[in-house]
Structures are given as structure tokens and as C-alpha cells.
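Format notes (please read before filing issues)

Several people have asked whether sequences and C-alpha cells are stored in separate files. They are not. Every record keeps both together, in the order shown below: the sequence lines, then the C-alpha cell lines. Line labels are part of the format and must not be stripped during preprocessing.
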Amino acid sequence: MQLNNRYIAYYLDSGVALEQAMKDTQSIGVPDLGIMKIRSFPIPLPPLAEQKRIVAKVDELLARCAALESKLGQAQVAGRQLTAAVLHGAVG
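Then the structure lines:
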């Protein structure tokens, strides 16, 4: 079966993979997740075309998130500048 490396990376970064890893770590101290456990993780593998579609959608959503974070940062800066201007006007 063909694999899209970015699909695998997105899957491994997902909450599903994290839950699987946490479920399979058992220790009192520092959790230990051995390579044999990692190799046994089930990874859903749709056909390559579907993997590519999923990667494209995740990329699109991540780009939207980045744009929203940028706008939020700009709004926070503008808010701080407005607050400073109002305070300066009230004091000055």
C-alpha cells in the first residue's frame, strides 16, 4: 500500500495517536512506550488519493488557523494601542 508521509505525520500528531500511546503506557514513574508497542499501533490507511485529500484539507485548515491567529494578534495590538491612547487622553 502506498503512503503519504504527511498523512502519517498528521495522524501521529493527532489526539487519536496520543490516546493510543497513553493507553499503552503503564508505569508508576515515567511512562515508557517501547518501539514494539509503537509498531503495533493500528493506523487507518485509506487509499492514497484519500490520504492526499485529507492532507490537503488539514493544510487548508491549518492555514486558516494561522491567518486567524495573525488577525487575533493584530487585534490585540490594536486594543493595547487604543487603551494606551485613551489613558493618555484621560491623563494628558
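For reference, the curators noted about this record: The mean pLDDT is 88. The two ends are 71 Å apart (CA to CA).
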